[in-house]
């Protein structure tokens, strides 16, 4: 970890990578606990939105340990899980030795142009320093007519619930993380980065600006999470 226990909101890549290296062993368990088990529901909705078909090539960015890639594999697609945390990839290789886990930076993807039918990223775009650069890179490696699906924390649509949710993020989440995570300070960053992330129309605008067409979104859990989908022209 080199003394880094959490990343700052300017999202220096070495800080973010080190932070995720430090939480790799218990990352999936911690997410299940903090989301009250909702991560499993959200993964099912991502798989439904991607709608991978047999023989398609799917790039799963910020794949971490590879758990998010398993539904695409089960659908018969060829999936490439990609992450820039080597600690996450090592843990993923231990759990899923047959997955082609690949090290890569979302802003400089190690793939040729137009090779994927679909690109997806769940709870990872928020951690990339150059969001627009990453969205343009995803566009580059997607074939014409291909799709992007982004699953990310967002802004609850009902004002009273939004207030309760914000209080949970800033007050309850770090103490809960302390009891289950190998690096609870990382979840302070998690809470701060969620608050700073754009709302649903804001992310749709970023997709359009990066060259994606027909961006649309669907709220999950009252807008705690939003699924965005768009297409390459």
UniProtKB/TrEMBL annotation:
Signal peptide: none annotated. S-adenosyl-L-methionine binds at residues 65, 83, 105-106, 122. GO terms for molecular function: demethylmenaquinone methyltransferase activity. GO terms for biological process: menaquinone biosynthetic process; methylation. Its EC number is 2.1.1.163. Keywords: Menaquinone biosynthesis, Methyltransferase, S-adenosyl-L-methionine, Transferase. It catalyses: a 2-demethylmenaquinol + S-adenosyl-L-methionine = a menaquinol + S-adenosyl-L-homocysteine + H(+). Belongs to the class I-like SAM-binding methyltransferase superfamily. MenG/UbiE family. PANTHER family: 2-METHOXY-6-POLYPRENYL-1,4-BENZOQUINOL METHYLASE, MITOCHONDRIAL (PTHR43591:SF24), METHYLTRANSFERASE (PTHR43591). This is Demethylmenaquinone methyltransferase. The gene is menG.
């Amino acid at each position: 970890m080199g003394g880094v226990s959490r990343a700052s909101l300017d999202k220096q890549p070495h800080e973010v990578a080190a932070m995720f290296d430090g939480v790799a062993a218990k990352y999936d368990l911690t997410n299940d606990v903090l989301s009250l088990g909702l991560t499993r529901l959200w993964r099912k909705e991502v798989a439904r939105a991607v709608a991978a078909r047999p023989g398609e090539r799917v790039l799963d960015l910020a794949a971490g340990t590879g758990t998010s890639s398993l539904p695409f594999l089960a659908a018969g697609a060829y999936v490439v899980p990609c992450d820039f945390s080597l600690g996450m990839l090592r843990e993923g290789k231990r759990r899923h030795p047959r997955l082609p886990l690949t090290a890569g930076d979302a802003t400089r993807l190690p793939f040729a142009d137009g090779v994927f039918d679909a690109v997806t990223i769940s709870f990872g775009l928020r951690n990339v320093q150059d969001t627009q650069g990453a969205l343009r890179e995803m566009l580059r490696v997607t074939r014409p007519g291909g799709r992007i699906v982004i699953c990310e924390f967002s802004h609850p649509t009902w004002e009273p619930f939004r207030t309760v949710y914000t209080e949970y993020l800033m007050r309850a989440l770090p103490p809960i993380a302390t009891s289950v995570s190998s690096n609870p300070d990382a979840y302070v960053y998690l809470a701060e980065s969620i608050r700073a992330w754009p709302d649903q129309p804001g992310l749709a605008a970023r997709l359009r600006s990066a060259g994606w067409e027909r961006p649309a979104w669907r709220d999950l859990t009252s807008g705690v999470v939003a699924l965005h989908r768009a297409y390459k022209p």
